[in-house]
Design goal:
This protein is of the alpha/beta class and 345 residues long. It has 3 domains: 47 residues, no CATH class; 177 residues, TIM Barrel, CATH 3.20.20.70; 118 residues, no CATH class. Helices cover 40% and strands 14% of the residues. The chain has 13 helices and 11 strands. The strands form 4 sheets. Strands 3-6-7-8-9 form a 5-stranded parallel β-sheet, covered by helices on one side. A hairpin with a 5-residue loop joins strand 1 and strand 2. The longest helix has 22 residues. Bound molecules: iron/sulfur cluster. Iron/sulfur cluster binds next to helix 3.
């Protein structure tokens, strides 16, 4: 096992001869009795890779992936996240071992990689970072990146990234829009403050209106990340989530209305649910769970019935027929809200 980034650890392991003791302060191993042991004397220390110095990813299958519809070139510009959302994993792995929970590449390193692909004809990019703008340093880096893209005259570039609702502001986003930002995925998670507190998002849903107004003024598409159902969600909270989703987003995929909390091992929410007796078995790397309120469980079943009952209508739509999609979405939302009313106490 390796603690922290794996690049240096794997090289060090590969360079060792068969039968030699394992070295490296970031490596742990298991003996024949499955006891976990550090490979080196002294405390185990996480590796933090100097990201600017790492080789760029091997892209030999890029065109193959593009033929299957994955058009964008993925760029990894940072690792980790300084926030502590209760369902999320990066901080769980970094909290005890890594001094800097958000490790990042310089704007120069990022623009070099983008430019390389641009010269090869690529125009569409997606940042795969957990959160592209987690702090002041990240915002400064984003401005520098925008200036560099402009200096290099990379026209027709388009890119997207993931961030939180509180990272959106008009000044920075208008600079980014000018050099190609066309879409952001925002982890709203819920439109009810009780759920946001459970998720430890450190935001209140009252800011979401401003976030969406800025994006709308700048004509940047917002893709919402929502967790509509969790074990402790109330019927009223489901209603707020659906109303928020229905009122603000044109996109629709079947799973949007059936999004439910994924409970991963080691996360704060896993221990909280365990204490409340709501956690079940571990199945394929995540915990199953049960609803606290039987009315919400019934509502979950209603939602499945309604959404899956419209599967054929959804599949028969042409991907480009936005009007038909919008009508279908409205009809489904109407049915879901009626189901919510039916389950209100
Ligand atoms: S959900 Fe997003 S903001 Fe929260 S810890 Fe995970 S990556 Fe960071």
């Amino acid at each position: 096992m390796c603690v922290g980034d794996g690049e240096a650890a794997i090289l060090s392991l590969l360079s060792e001869q068969e039968g030699q003791p394992r070295r490296g302060s970031s490596i742990l191993w298991r003996d024949d009795d499955r006891n976990q042991k550090p490979a080196a004397k002294g405390p185990t220390k996480a590796n933090v890779a100097p990201l600017d110095d790492l080789a760029w990813p091997d892209r030999k299958y890029l065109h193959f992936a593009q033929e299957f519809g994955y058009k964008a070139v993925g760029i990894s510009s940072s690792r980790g996240c300084p926030f502590r959302c209760s369902f999320c994993v990066p901080h769980v792995y970094s909290q005890d071992s890594i001094e800097r929970p958000w490790n990042y590449r310089s704007a120069h390193s990022i623009v070099e990689e983008i430019h390389h692909h641009y010269d090869n004809g690529e125009r569409l990019f997606t940042f795969s970072d957990e959160h592209f703008l987690p702090n002041k340093m990240a915002r400064r880096r984003a401005s520098e990146l925008a200036a560099m893209i402009k200096d290099r005259n990379m026209r027709d570039l388009r890119f997207m990234f993931d961030c939180r609702a509180d990272a959106v502001d008009e000044e920075l986003f208008s600079i980014l829009k000018e050099v190609g930002l066309y879409r952001v995925y925002i982890g709203f998670e819920a439109a009810a403050n009780g759920m946001l507190m459970d998720y430890r998002k450190d935001v209140k849903m009252e800011i979401y209106g401003d976030t969406l107004s800025v994006l709308s003024r700048l004509d940047i598409e917002a893709i919402p990340g929502m967790i509509i159902f969790s074990p402790t969600t109330t019927v009223g909270e489901v209603q707020k989530n659906i109303e928020f989703f229905a009122g603000n987003f044109a996109t629709y995929a079947e799973e949007d209305f059936l999004s439910r909390l994924q409970v991963l091992p080691g996360t704060p929410i896993a221990s909280s649910l365990n204490t409340q007796g709501l956690l079940g078995e571990m199945i394929e790397g995540e915990y199953s769970w049960r609803f606290k309120d039987p009315a919400v469980e019934s509502l979950w079943n209603d939602f499945n019935e309604i959404v899956k009952g419209r599967s054929n209508d959804f599949l028969s739509l042409q991907a480009h027929d936005r009007d038909a999609l919008s009508t279908l979405k409205k009809e489904i939302e109407h049915d879901l809200l009626r189901a919510v009313s039916g389950r209100m106490q």
